[in-house]
Automatic annotation (TrEMBL):
A Pfam family of this chain: zf-C2HC_2
Biased composition (Polar residues): 295-315
GO molecular function: zinc ion binding
Keywords on record: Metal-binding, Repeat, Zinc, Zinc-finger
Region (Disordered): 37-67, 102-132, 155-178, 277-315, 412-451, 489-509, 544-567
All copies of domain C2HC/C3H-type, residue ranges: 8-37, 81-110, 184-213, 254-283, 319-348, 390-419, 455-484, 523-552, 573-602, 646-675
Protein species of origin: Magallana gigas (Pacific oyster)
InterPro entries reported in the protein's UniProt record: ZC2HC1A/B-like (IPR026319), Znf_C2HC_C3H (IPR049899)
Residue ranges with Low complexity bias: 278-294, 421-432
Biased composition, class Basic and acidic residues, residue ranges: 155-175
Coiled-coil residues: none
Name of protein: C2HC/C3H-type domain-containing protein
Length: 676
């Protein structure tokens, strides 16, 4: 059966691609717009004239001849848009020329395409496609080496006439198609990777430069000799294999063995491997799996012994030096950059501390050996001691901290009896310790405050600390907030308005703070279960997790107060919809019911006639109680029964469902098999 005829295609005069006769009218405007955008990006010297669609006069024969002539002219127009390479002369699209010129250098131009080997021919003819209508079978007895001869019948044509793609004369031998060989590759003698015969000349100098940089970073005991490119005398494919074998052995000799498992790795990968290598006892005559694959197996099969790389110790960690100011680790080169900056930062932080906490400027320790060289370990030990001397102890627990971290620590430090402990907020675990007492003995001026901040004043309402200027702004706002929160509390929890402490004789700042702290504590409310005191807005949060222990009554603080029954919070009355059975407020039910009835009618009309239900009627229950109000419970019961009557019963299990949920249920509810 002959193959179906191939559809006619038309060539775009801008890009040279083939499209269908209907698609071309859509493609050409978009292709021209893209061409203009790319052309505007080119330098002025490379910009091209706007291509013009070729006009072909119709021929006498018409038909496919006109289409072929137009395609040829469009192809020539598209080829005229290509830009030639200055080095090799090949033509490329403007956006591909730059990519090509990365590898095509003036000194080493790429080999230009030969005529007849592909691409555009010398005549600039358009590459054509051929449809085979009578394919021939290639017989195995006609194969000669890599050449394949196609056996064909003599075409019925004029003797001596050569048609396109076929030979009809007996004087010419039929063309023999040669199978394309695999492209040859060459191994790099440094890294062992595969490259093309042209690419290897570009890669090897760059690879050698990279190898030297990595080798210089290794310890002296692990540095390797510069690899030498192997040379094989003679030519031919056999010698390429031998050269690749020698290059592979050269690349394998650059690897370093792991002390734990004996496997070999590149220097930059060895450190990564050793993080997870758990092999105990080191490499005791193990044959690593990584070195027994690839080309080493080929050499062993042929009787050649693969060279064993020299074993050397794993790369040690780089030497580090401690900073004598902060005690952090740095490289031997980085520490010289870090120390001046760290000292400048130390001076700024030290100047912010109170005078009683300021420390003398640290000095860099110098430890020399007998030979006049620095002892790094002894120097690091002295630097560590110097950095530890800069820390400030906590008054509560005695631990040492940096000045900027001490304030953070004291927020949660509970103290161990060595000091007064940190400042406690209202509702904390130590309600008996005031902020003034936490900073030092009574009557202190506040210079020994470990926080290192300015002297503060305690608010008599909330107990928080503020500056002497800020307290006058805070107290009126805090009192207004207190009044709003106090009005929201139940009557039994409401407290009298706090008054600012005033004494007849002048008091010191610490004594005023002590009185303000006691006044703020009196505003707290004790928990009935554990006795701890909390602010009113925090007590409810605490009681969610604080439950009374079984067999234990309330705390002493709660037992001292007269027990009052908790207030009963009544649930707002709700009305049940007589159609869907859901609950709504007394105001919302009048809005919901008309909409629910409309929705019910739409769903009911979609059901089969056998399942359609009568329209529900709102029940009228007008029972009036003794107080002259309607009996809402009776109305809700009647509405709920009416809503249940709208449900449909499942034929398998007997359960009732809404009409839109019944099909979903029946997907998994199957009838039970009858009992035998």
């Amino acid at each position: 059966m002959p193959a179906p005829p191939r559809k006619k295609t038309v060539v775009c005069y801008i890009c040279g691609r083939e499209f269908g006769s209907q698609s071309l009218s859509i493609h050409e405007p978009q292709c021209l717009k893209k061409w203009k955008a790319e052309n505007d990006k080119l330098p002025k010297s490379q910009r091209r004239k706007t291509p013009v669609r070729p006009q072909i006069l119709p021929s006498i024969e018409g038909g496919g001849a006109d289409n072929e002539r137009f395609n040829e002219a469009a192809w020539q127009s598209a080829q005229a848009q290509l830009v030639p390479c200055e080095n090799c002369g090949r033509t490329f699209a403007p956006d591909r020329l730059q990519i090509h010129q990365r590898g095509c250098k003036p000194g080493k131009p790429m080999q230009p395409l030969k005529a007849g080997t592909g691409g555009t021919s010398d005549k600039g003819d358009r590459p054509r496609t051929t449809t085979i209508t009578d394919p021939k079978v290639v017989k195995s007895e006609n194969a000669i080496g890599d050449k394949t001869v196609r056996v064909e019948k003599q075409a019925e044509a004029t003797p001596g006439l050569e048609k396109e793609g076929t030979f009809t004369t007996s004087k010419k031998d039929p063309p023999m198609s040669k199978a394309p060989p695999n492209p040859g590759f060459v191994l790099c003698y440094i890294c062992g990777r595969k490259f093309g015969t042209k690419s290897i000349d570009i890669h090897e100098p760059q690879c050698l430069e990279k190898w030297r940089k990595e080798n210089a970073q290794l310890p002296k005991s692990q540095r390797r000799k510069t690899p030498v490119k192997p040379e094989i005398v003679g030519g031919g494919s056999n010698n390429i294999e031998a050269m690749n074998e020698a290059a592979w052995q050269s690349a394998q000799s650059q690897l370093l063995p792991c002390d734990g498992c004996g496997r070999t790795f590149a220097p930059d990968r060895l450190a990564v491997h050793q993080r997870a290598c758990k092999a105990p006892g080191g490499a005791k005559g193990k044959t690593p799996a990584a070195t027994s694959t690839g080309r080493s197996s080929q050499s062993s099969a042929t009787g050649g012994a693969s060279p064993t790389p020299k074993k050397s110790s794993a790369p040690a960690q780089p030497q580090f030096v401690l900073c004598y100011i902060c005690g952090r680790k740095f490289g031997s080169k980085s520490v010289a950059i870090h120390e001046p900056q760290c000292l400048e930062k130390w001076k700024i932080e030290n100047s912010k501390l109170p005078k009683g906490q300021r420390r003398p400027e640290p000095k860099k320790p110098e430890v020399l050996q007998s030979g006049g060289k620095y002892d790094v370990e002894a120097m690091n030990e002295a630097a560590w001691q110097s950095a530890q001397a800069q820390l400030i102890p906590c008054d509560g627990c005695g631990r040492t901290f940096a000045p900027d971290r001490l304030a953070v620590h004291q927020r949660s430090c509970k103290g161990t009896g060595k000091g007064a402990g940190p400042t406690n907020k209202p509702g904390g675990t130590n309600p008996g310790v005031s902020p003034a007492a936490s900073t030092g003995p009574a009557g202190s001026t506040g210079k020994g405050d470990p926080k290192g901040g300015p002297r503060t004043v305690v608010c008599y309402i909330c107990g928080r600390e503020f500056g002497s200027k800020s307290i006058s702004i805070h107290e009126p706002q805090c009192l207004e907030k207190w009044k709003n929160e106090n009005n929201k509390l139940p009557k039994e929890r409401r407290r009298p308005i706090p008054k600012k402490p005033e004494a007849g004789q002048p008091l010191t700042r610490d004594q005023m703070n002590e009185l303000a702290w006691e006044n703020a504590k009196s505003q707290l409310i004790p928990c009935e279960n554990c006795g701890r005191t909390f602010a009113p807005d925090r007590l409810d949060v605490h009681q969610r997790a604080c439950k009374p222990k079984p067999g234990q009554g309330p705390s002493k603080a709660a037992a001292a107060e007269p027990s009052k029954p908790p207030p009963v919070i009544k649930r707002p009355p709700t009305m049940v919809c007589y159609i869907c059975g859901r609950e709504f407020g007394s105001k919302s039910i009048s809005i919901h019911e008309p909409q629910c009835l409309e929705k019910w009618k739409i769903e009911n009309n979609k059901l089969p006639k056998s399942q359609r239900r009568p329209e529900p009627i709102k029940p009228e229950v007008r029972k009036i109680g003794a107080k002259g109000t309607y009996d809402i419970d009776a109305m809700n019961d009647a509405a709920y029964e009416s809503a249940k009557a709208q449900l449909l019963k499942c034929e398998n299990c007997g359960r009732t469902f809404a009409p839109d949920r019944l099909p979903v249920h029946q997907r998994s509810c199957k009838p039970k098999p009858p009992k035998e």
